[in-house]
Structures are given as structure tokens and as C-alpha cells.
Amino acid sequence: MKKFLILSVIILGTWMSVGVGAAETVDRSMCVFDPSGAHGDVFKAAQRYQAQALTWGIRLDLKAYTDEVVANSDFKAGKCNMAFLTSLRVRSYVHESGSIEAIGALPSYDLLRKTIEALSNPKVRELNTDGDYETMAMFPGGAVYLLLRDKNLKDIKDLAGRKIATLTYDQAATTMVDIVGASMVPAEIATFAGIFNNGRADACYSPAIGIKPLELMKGISPNGGIVRFPIGQLTFQIVARHKDFAEGFGNTSRAWAATQFDAMLSLTKKAEQEIPAKYWIEVPKDLQKNYFEKFREVRIRLRDKKVYHPTILKLMKRVRCSADKEAAECADNLE
Amino acid sequence: MNKRIFFFVTIVTITLANCSIVYRVTGKTLNSYAQDHLVPFYLASDDLDAICTGGTALGPLVASFERTGASVELATMVAQMGAGMCAEKQAQEAELLYIAAVRKGKGEEALDHQARQIRYHGVAAKRYGDAHTRFLQYFGEWNGKCPSISEDEELYYLVGLSSGLLAILHDFASQGYAGITRDVPSVVAGASRCLDPKKWWGTPLALEAVVWLSVPGATPEGKDPIKQMEEAVKIGDKEGVRLARAFQIQAAAGKGDVEKIKKLILEHSKVLSQIPAKKEYRFLEAFAENLSRHESDKIWMKETGHRGPINFSSFPGKKKNNKEEDDLLKDL
């Protein structure tokens, strides 16, 4: 009897320790796209997320990818439970959150912050879910700017008939090129800088963080510049299959991610401050209106093509109008 | 009385003037001593801890002679490079503890080690960044044309470029804490072409390739960074200074390909036992070894919860082929 008791205690103890251990942390994996790989800022952010997720009972195994197409297809094939991707790719899983990068919708970081904070509110979980997928976090990746070889083209109308180096998989960019009447020079991330610097295109677009490492100053010197009017906000998002995570995980995760806004933007802000003032092209108010209207035309066309989600466009318009109630668009009903 | 005051003022003036002369001469002496003896002595030592502690302690002293008008850029650059390694070692230590905490599922511990790791990366970035700034002060800002570099200065030129690359890597890891200029990668890639790769153990080729591999879109048409890196490693292996390997493993670590990292680490370990290190440059060898050892320890820590062998010569074993062993032991 005594032996039996001891044996029972041992068995129970072993079972308890295994059981409790398993309840403490669950193993999950995340495919992380960072153009600079494991040394890059996005991967470092993924590591901060990894440490944070432990406190929510998830132990994440991270895998770095320098090619987003591969990271995306591995996630799609179920090789990882989560993926850290650009919003452009996330859009094919969660239509709503992937629409946050809509062209020209958020011309300042404050507006982007407000939008990300609003979307992290537990009341709108459904705006972060789509079928089996859920967006667990959103981080700013930096505003995308238009770079010109000739600064006299600073009105968007001047781009008609000009050549723009365009990422072919980016539907928003190809639509914009079409609407402003420019012609497209097909490019990839690995080739656009060379195309622009060698004069094969009159314009290209890039976040500030790419300008110095890719030596894009060669293309904008001596007569060009960088148009200080964000054409879009690059965002990195974490997308997951929600069945792999406990209920409520998404709300916790999004709330934490929203607090990381400034930390994620620090490298971008530094890169923007580092660009010599002479390279920036300030856009006068009346010309800003032209940019805004063209971009809105692109957004509406892409909304009608089901590329951008109407609810998110509406939310972003509300965010803009909360900051500037007098804006003309606040009285219309286009978005 | 007036005479006395005049005499006193004269004495003080002469003393002060002499002091500034003495200081400046001391600074110049220190600088040339550093270049003639201290740096070669440093380079021949494989004691990273001693060098990094020495750099941290002596850096401010050496740099302070700038105030006397002495030019001490090169000596300060080497000292700051050593100081950067101290912070880098601390960051590596914190990173290993962070990996261990993740393995154990300890969230708060992981967050704290990670916070320490980020801080040390920041310190390392500042120190390496300072070394790189001294390099630019001495050789002039990079404008696309090679400066005239004497035979004796070439090694400093190489150290200055390497410190720039290390500064930017650590700055990324510290969320831009040190604010290292984003010009560094293109400066390193361009300026590394000013050195003869054969003479400097393939390192200039490795520096250029590591920039191409880390900055998407930076590789010029018709160039293959991976092939160039392999060529650099081959030269370094033959010469007994395997600094190129350190950059090759860093680049592979960036790509996150664990199998490739393991393969390169094992190759590095093997070549160490085959070809002796060049005596005059044992320090650079030790630096490269430390990087490989750290990458090896990271893999060990993640897979087993502890560090690996000091000579990074193996990885946690795959499952043994039990059937084969059973056959061997049959009927014994």
C-alpha cells in the first residue's frame, strides 16, 4: 500500500510538472521578413515581441527571411504560425488591416499613430480579423517619399509623361502611375535604385531609411530632390491564424504593439533628420491639394476594385478630419 | 612689492607656457609610441579581454591629448576599437542569457536581458562609431576618391573601415541609439577598394561583400557577393589571418540560415587547426574566433540550454543511427 502511495505520488508529481510546464508556455513559430535579415530593425522588433509574448504564455521561435515572397509562402504553407510582413502582403490575409497603407491616406506620423491606436481598441477586433486570419500587431515602417531627378516636377501634374521606377507587384503604385499619366519602368527592390541613379527613370519612391544606403542622392543630385509629402505609410504587421492562439491574445498583442510606435520609428526619424535640408522639396499648400486629390482618386479606384477596404478608408478619413476639421473633404462623402 | 608681483607673474607665465609645450610634446610622443610599439604589441596579442579593458581605460587618456594640440587620431581609433569590443562582449553575454530565458519560458528575465543587450549594443555602437570618426578625421571624408595612404597607414585604414561596419551593425541592434550615420555602408563598400585585398588577407573584399549582403539593392550589376566573400575567405585562410571569416559568418547570421552558419563555423574551427595564425596579427584572429564562438554558443544555448565547446568544433548531435549500432553490438 505504502509502495503504491509512493508510486502514485511520483506519477502524479511527474504528471503535474509536465502538465503545469505545458500550461505555462506554448510553442509557436514566426516567419520574419526583414530586408536586412537578422541584423535588421524589423527582426530586432520581432525579438522584442518574442520576449513580450513569453509573458503572455507564448514561446516563439523566430526565422529570418530576406525575401518576403519566401516568408509569405512559408506562412501560407503553414510552416509558421505567425508572419511579420509588410502590410502589402498582409492585405491578402486581412483585407482591413492591410489597407492602412492606402496611398496618401495618412500624410503624417501622428495620423498613423492615431489609426494604429484606434485599431488596437478591443471594440474593433473584427477589423483585425478576416476568415482564419488575424492581424496581431501593426508597426510603422516609415513614410514613403517621391524622389525626383528634376525638382521642377514638384507638382504631381508635372509627372505626366515622365518615367517612374515602379515595383511591379505594388498595385497602388501602378495605379498611381496610370492616374497621373506617367509611364512605368518596372523595378524590384534590388533594382530600383540603380534604375533611378542611372537616369533610366525620372522618379522613384523610397522610405527615408533606404536613401543613404542605396546612395539615392546620386540620382537626386544636382537638380533633383525629395518631395516632402508622404505618398504612403509603410507598415510592418504580424499576421497569424487565430485558432493557434488563445482567445484575447490578439487584443493583448495589438495593445502592446501600439505602445511600441515611437521605438519602431526611431531609426526612421533619424534617417529623415540625416537627409540634408537642401535635398527636401517643400510642397506649397495649393500643390499639396493636387497631390491629395490625385491620391484620393487612386484610393477610390482601388477601393472599387476591392484592393482597399472601405471601412479602413472611412476610419482614416475620420482620423484626418479629427486633426483638421476644416478640410474640404470633411464635408463630402467620397471615402 | 611690484617687482615681486611682476616676478611671480613671469614665473607663472613661463611655467604655464612650458606646461602646454610639455603636454603637446608628451601627446606627440605618446602618439608615435602608440603607433610604433603599442599597436603592434596589441595586434600580436590574442588576449581580447586585456586589449578591450586597455582600450576602455586608456582611450580617454590618449584622446585627452587632443586638447594640447597633439594629433592622436590613430591611437585613439585603436583604443576605441578595443573599448567597443568590451561592450560587444557584454552584449553577447546578455544575448546568450536572453536566449536561455526564452528557452526556459521566463518572460520577465528575457525582457530584462534583452534590455541589457540593447544597452550594450548602444555603447558598442558609440565606441566603434567614435573609432570610425577618428578614421575620417585622419584620412579625410570619403568623396569617392582614394586618399594617399602610406604603407604604415594601410592597417589603420582597414581598422577604421571595419569599425564603421561594426558601428552600424550595433546601432541597428540598439534601435539607432548611437545615431550612426547611414552613409557608413556605402563609404565602407567604396573605400575598401583602396586597399589591396591580397595584402590584407582578403578583408577588403569581405567588407564590400558584407555591405552588399546587408543592404538590399546595394549589389552592383554583375557582382556576386557570396562568391566574392568566398574568395576573400580563401585568401585569409592561406595567410593565417581569418578576419574575412568573421564577416562571412556575420553575413550568414544576418540571413538567418542556421545550417549554413553551422557549416561555416565548423569550417572556421577546422582551418584554425590546419593553418597556424600569423603571429603579428593574433588579435584579429582572436576577434574572428570570438565572433564564431558566439554564433556557435547561440545555437548551443537555443538547442541545449548551455554553451558549446570553446573551439566551436561541433554542434548538438543528430539522432544516432541506432540500427547500425545494434548491428555492431549484436551477440557480443
From TrEMBL, chain A:
Residues 1-22 form the signal peptide. Gene3D superfamilies: Bacterial extracellular solute-binding protein, family 7. Keywords: Signal. It holds the Pfam family AdeT1_2. InterPro entries: AdeT1/2, TRAP_DctP_sf. The keyword Signal applies. The keyword Signal applies. It comes from the Bacteria. This is RND transporter.
TrEMBL record, chain B:
It comes from the Bacteria. Residues 310-332 are annotated as: Disordered. This is Uncharacterized protein. It comes from Leptospira dzoumogneensis. The lineage of its organism: Bacteria, Pseudomonadati, Spirochaetota, Spirochaetia, Leptospirales.
